[in-house]
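Appendix B. Extra example for self-study. Work through it before the problem class; the solution is given directly after the inputs so you can check yourself.
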Amino acid sequence: MDLKDLYRDVIVDHNRHPRNFREIADADRRADGFNPLCGDKLTMFVKLEGDRISDVAFNGSGCAISVASASLLTESIKGRTIPEAETLFRQMHQLLTQDDAPVDVSSLGKLGALSGVREFPARVKCASLCWHTLDAALHQQEQVSTE
Amino acid sequence: MNAIHAVQHALLPLNVAQIRRDFPILERTVRGRPLAYLDNAASSQRPRAVIDAMSHYYEHSHANVHRGVHTLSQEATDLFEGAREKVRRFINARTTKEIVFVRGTTEAINLVAQSYGRPQFGPGDEILISWLEHHANIVPWQLLCQQTGATLKVAPITQTGEVDFDAFAALLSPRTKLVALTHVSNALGTVVPVQRFIAAARARGVPVLLDGAQAVPHLKVDVQSLDCDFYAFSSHKMCGPTGIGVLYGRESLLAAMPPWQGGGDMILAVSFDKTVYNALPYKFEAGTPAIAEAIGLGVAIDYLEALGMDRVAAAEHDLLLYANERLSKVPGLRFVGTAPDKAAVVSFTIDKIHPHDLGTILDHEGVAIRTGHHCAMPVMEFFGLPATARASFAFYNTPAEIDHLVDALHAAREMLG
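Solution. Structure tokens for the complete assembly:
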């Protein structure tokens, strides 16, 4: 397993220049996520129009994997409906945790760049933190921890 | 360090190449690279003598201790109690009655909180710790405060990572019932000048517990000259097995404390009307103890004593100076914790690279360091950091391994910086 499978160019880019890295002051939903193992902390903000995610953003601090994953998440779910986002969450969970995940990586777009993370078990929680936090925001829990 | 010791070190440095052959694990590779094990503050490695002693015990002498009249039980008891005597001598306790075997530092501190603190502390009483503490010297006191209504007071630290003595002294009051202080910080490596703190506490009649988990492996500890009341440490950080540690307690205090856990071995006589507790230290050792682990700890002490703790400390200090010099030239590297007196622990951050990423990239180069909050989240909060990278050295590490670390940091900067 090569380190380049983890730190792919897309991930390095999204870590250096995270997209939608801001607060949405009038967010309809928000939740805080925390990974006590490495200290990653992020907040997800969601703006809804009906059940469609009209805007999504995040801020906080974390490792390259958690920041890039959150950045990629915001790009991929903006404009989608809540059920579509939930489906994507399930697919990402499978992609990150199952070797033989029944997920078509090509259908995930840039999110597929995170498929290398499952070879690094200690880092799976970094990549999944933003998704668990989004899930908590959509279900109106205030805080989520990966421990 | 006095002049005579300095001369001895100059004459008799440790033969590190030979020492490394005593540690089988140091020969392994990680991901095709030689292992550079720089996570000794989390847990050290074991010399073959410790591993062999434990195997030999299981192959030849294992039985339960303090119970049977048969040969094996007697042998096991002699080995187990022999280990206790080695511990007593190593830290210069007055008597083996003051040496309680526990699972580790954490259990030792919990024992003091529950057996010493809980029966006698109440609302208005205060326990004084420092901002530098490991969670193991914070949470047991928080639990005790919840149980008794006592209050936890925390002495602040400075930007260099030293406990502010004046602030500490100002927090000592007639309400202070116990001081619990780290001897060496696990997160930063700061050596706390504990004599001064102990003197201030004792002048007010306040007993002092020291968390010695990081100190005992790296410097000579003498509980009588320290004049502390409790001293807690773990075997696995000093080349011994996991699962065993030591609580030293002043005999007069231990004698007055009630048992912490009940069971076999801690009693003299049991009836349903009345149970008579065993003498010290057995009163605090309910159930079958970690016999092989105690024997392994005794052999680890033999090993360290044969090297000489002065020479261990000197070798580690040399590694610290070399690491400071090499790391200070890595662009973007910031040291966290810059006290003048430090154990061989270097905590740092690198601009634009999260410590967790550093840990993964370094592992790919065969370099094992700790990244995270080091079970000292208040220390991280003080410096406004979510985490640091921490390299911690033992006497068996080499300057070449520090070069290996620095090369790996450059690789990380290339990849993510």
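Self-check: Residues 1-10 of chain B have pLDDT under 50 and may be disordered. If your reasoning did not lead you there, revisit section 3.
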